[in-house]
Design a protein that fits this description.
Elements lengths: L1 H17 L7 E17 L3 E6 L6 E2 L4 E5 L2 H26 L3 H23 L3 H33 L5 H30 L3 H23 L3 H26 L2 E3 L4 E6 L6 E2 L2 E19 L11 E6 L2 E13 L13 H4 L3 E8 L11 E7 L6
Antiparallel strand pairs: 1-8, 1-12, 2-4, 2-7, 3-6, 4-5, 6-8, 8-11, 9-10, 9-12, 10-11
């Protein structure tokens, strides 16, 4: 590519320095018509599933050229959709606040905690004290009966009237009555002494926690919590957008109207990110000529240039300057003399049309460059 540009620049330079100015005050510079091209590819890459075009096919902008395997990309998109749904649900819940059922549950839990704290602070009620005393009296009476029965059997055993088995049963009944009496006494003592300090502290903490939870339900979520949930939802939407781009990149489409110039892809190939298809538009033509620095003062962007084609010697066509290179080509390291500065050339790109199909890529044209500045 560089060698062809170098040859073109040298030829243009020879024309500029060796050809005389024509009678109408123009200088002739030659160039080769080229069709403007565009490349298409995938920013992600993947395995090729289908190749839908061949070299030489005519395509429209947006036509699908190559289909890549998009299973993974679609899975990522589905996961992103699910994440958005979850984030939306959480945000809606925070914005709506507690439901009536949640408020009722919170109020009930707060009432229970308050009652338990009050009970711990006040101690046992009279009914509980009376019940504990009654249970202790019953246990005492039962112990007294069991002891008398034990003593009776013990005397009979000494007289060999009672058996050892009867004695063991009386002993077991007395032991059970003693244990029941001790339990009843401990329970009565506990009722009379009331709740311990640590039990009161636990009841107070539980009550405070229940009241705080109820207050939070009534007030609703804090603004910063809602803001954080909203930011998380927006982040999920951004992830979904990125996932959608991944799905879209599984189709390589034509970037413009034109003809497939180069395509070396087969189903099953594993493509890397980057361009893989070259599309040329034969209706969108351009030619690049090279002029010396002295000519730059006579040219400007959007200036119309007349030119002829070798295939149509007696016909003049029109083109428009689209770009003038800002840096020279084939420039010596240091430009010291006027003779050296003549070696510096600048590329000038001219837009053309086919003029009804007469002009085609590959044709050589000769542009007529004015020696004056022309009209701007």
């Amino acid at each position: 590519m560089k060698s062809s540009v170098l040859i073109g620049g040298l030829l243009s330079l020879l024309l500029l320095t060796g050809c005389p100015t024509s009678e109408n005050g123009t200088i002739s510079v030659s160039g080769t018509i080229e069709a403007r091209t565009a490349t298409a590819g995938s920013r992600i890459g993947g395995r090729v599933i289908k190749v839908l075009v061949e070299e030489g096919d005519t395509v429209k902008k947006g036509d699908v050229l190559i289909q890549l395997d998009g299973a993974e990309a679609r899975a990522l998109l589905a996961a992103a959709d699910a994440q958005i749904a979850a984030r939306d649900a959480l945000l809606a819940k925070l914005e709506a606040g507690a439901t009536p059922e949640q408020l009722r549950q919170g109020e009930a839990a707060a009432q229970v905690a308050a009652a338990q704290l009050e009970m711990a602070l006040k101690g046992a009620r009279n009914q509980e004290i009376r019940a504990a005393n009654a249970a202790l009296d019953a246990a005492l009476a039962q112990r007294t009966v069991a002891r008398k029965e034990f003593e009776r059997i013990e005397n009979l055993l000494a007289k060999k009237v009672a058996s050892q088995r009867q004695f063991d049963q009386a002993q077991a009944a007395l032991d059970a009555a003693e244990a029941q009496y001790r339990g009843a006494k401990e329970q009565r003592d506990l009722v009379l002494s009331g709740a311990r300090n640590e039990e009161i502290a636990m009841a107070r903490a539980a009550n405070e926690q229940a009241q705080a939870a109820l207050a939070e339900l009534k007030v609703g979520a804090r603004e910063e919590d809602i803001a954080a949930a909203r930011a998380a939802r927006d982040g999920a939407i951004a992830e979904r957008t990125r996932a959608q781009i991944g799905v879209d990149e599984m189709k390589i489409v034509a970037p413009q109207v034109g003809i497939i110039e180069s395509l070396d892809v087969r189903p099953g190939d594993l493509l890397r990110p980057g361009p893989v298809v070259r599309v040329v538009d034969p209706e969108d033509l351009e030619v690049t000529i090279f002029v010396g620095a002295a000519m730059l003062g006579h040219l400007h962007v959007q200036q119309e240039i007349s030119f002829s084609a070798d295939a149509f010697d007696n016909v003049l066509f029109q083109g428009t300057i689209r770009r003038i290179a800002s840096e020279g080509e084939y420039t010596p390291r240091n430009l010291q003399t006027q003779e050296e500065r003549v070696q510096q050339v600048f590329g000038v790109t001219i837009d053309l049309d086919t003029h009804g199909g007469k002009l085609r890529p590959g044709m050589t044209i000769t542009a007529q460059l004015p020696r004056n500045n022309g009209e701007r």
